[in-house]
Amino acid sequence: MDKWQLGRRAALKAILVGSAAPWIMSSKALASSCGDHIVRLAAIAAPDTMNPFATWSSFWPTVYTYDTLVGPEPQRHADRKGYAKEWSVSDDNLTWTFKIWPGMKWSDGHPATARDAAFTYNFLRDSIGKSDELNVGYNNTDGMDVIESIKVVDDETLQIVTKLPSLWPINNFNLIVPEHVWKDVSHAEARNTFRNEAPLVGTGPMIISEFQQGQFARLTPNSHFRTGKPKTAGMVFRFFDTADPIAQGLKSGDLDYGVSLTAAQWTDLSTDPAFVVGESLTPQWNYLAFNTVSGKGEGSTKALQDPAFRDAIGYAIDQKAIVDRAMRGHADPGVGLVVPMATNYYSDLSDIRRHFDLAEAGRRLDAAGYRDTNGDGIREDKEGNSFQLELITGTTSGTLEIPIAVVQLVAGWLGQIGIPVSVTQLDSGALSARTAAPANGGGGWDLLVRANWLSGSPHDLLSLGSGKLVGTTNKSQWTKDKFDKILSEIDVTIDVNKIRDLLDQASRIIYMEAPYIMLCYPFVLEARRKDCFEGWGEKGIMSMEGYFPFDRLRPI
Question: Do residues 454 and 408 make contact, with C-beta atoms less than 8 angstroms apart?
Fold first, then answer.
C-alpha cells in the first residue's frame, strides 16, 4: 500500500494507450493527486455536444450540471431531490403541483425558479409538429402530447395539467435549462448547431467548465448549489471507447472511480484491498436487432422482415450461455422488453418463452421456407439467394462495452443453423450513423448487437418498439399500430396494475414478432479507490441515473 501511495503522487506516467493519449497530452493539470481534492472518474462514453436537445450521448456529464424536475433518484431515495423539492397530484390525477426550492440560484447567480422549468417544457412543446421538432436529443418531445397546460403559479410553484391521468410529469427526464441562456436559441439551432459551449450554467452540484470531445470534461463545484457548495475541489470526467484504459487508470492511481468495467477487470480489482467494487441492476438491454425495413435502407434479404424467420432465430440464442460465458454471471438472461430492475412490472413470459434448441430453430426455418436446397450447408431465402448476413456492433455511449464473446456466440450459433454471419465492429458515431433511419442516411445492415439504457419507467420500457422513435431508440425500425396504441394508453395511465397488464400485452407482441432478441440485462460493474474521498454510495457506488454522490463526496 505504501508503494502504491507513493506512485499515486508521482508525476503522471504515460501508461494509457489509444484513446487515452490525447487526454494525457492535453493538460498536465489533470495529473493524479489526492492533494488537489479533484475527483477523477471515467466511463465508456462519447458525448458530442453539451446541448441536451441535440444528442442522446451527453447524459454523462450534463446530468451533473442540470437537474431533472423530479427524475428517478427522488422516487427511489427519500433524501434525493431534483429541481423540485416536493410535488403532489390532485384527486382526479390530472393536476400536478411542483414546489421549486425556495431561493435556488443558477450557477451564475441568477434566480432559478418555476419559470425556467416552464420555459424548458414549453420550448419542447412549441416545437411539436414543426420541421424542427425537438425529438432527436435527451431533452425531447416524446410523451408530451399528454400535456394540457404548463403554468407558473409563482416563482416557487409550477403546475402541469394533463389531458388524462399520466405519470409523465414525474417520469420525464428532461434536463431543466436556464431561460436567460436559452431564450434566444431557435428550435433549429437547438436541434442542430447550438453547441452550448462551456462554461455551462446549471443548478446541479458540478458545473461543466471545459469540454474536449473524445477526451474529457472538467467540472467545478457550484457555489450556489442549493444544499451548499460541494466539498471537493472539482471533477474530471474522462471518456473512453473501451474499458481497458479505465481499469489501467484505476490501478495506476490516475482514476478514483471507473464504470463500464468488464467482468474480468472487475474480478481482478475485487481482490485488491485498495479498491471497493460494486455491481448494480440497471434499465439496460443488450439485444440482437433485425433490420426490419422494407425498401430504402433494407438489409441483404427480405427474410429479415419475416416474423417467422426472426422467431426461428430466437431458438438459436442461448441467453444462459451468454450470461455464464460472456458476462461471467454479471447479468440476468434476456427475455422481454421489461427489465428485472422494474420489479413492479417484470415478467419472464414463461408461457411463450423460447428455449435454446438449434434443431428446433432449424425445423422452424424449414417450415418458414428457408431451406438448404443444394446441400452446401447454407440456407437460401425465398428468392433463392444464399444467406450471408452482416452483423454490426460496437460500444454505445454511456453503457457497458459489449463483450466480443457475446457477438462470437451469436455468430457461431447462427452459423450452425446454416446462416453465416460476418461481423463489423464500429465506433459509437459510426454505429449511430448506420442505425439511423434511412431518411437520415442509415440502413443497409442486417443484424445489430447493441446495448441500450434509458430508464425503468413504463414509457421507456417500450421505447425499443415505439413508432415515434424509429431510427433513434427503435433501432430495428419495426412498427405496429397495436403496439403504439398500447404505448399511448400507458402514457395516460397511473394505475400500477393496469400499467403492468398493458406492459405485458406490449411485451408479448414484440416477443412474438421478434424484431429484437433480448440477450441479457447486464449489471453495471464499477470500482473506486479508497484513499482520496469518502461519502460514496452504499447500494451501488454511483447511481446511474443522476449525479449522486458527487454533491456529497468529501476529501479524506
Answer: no
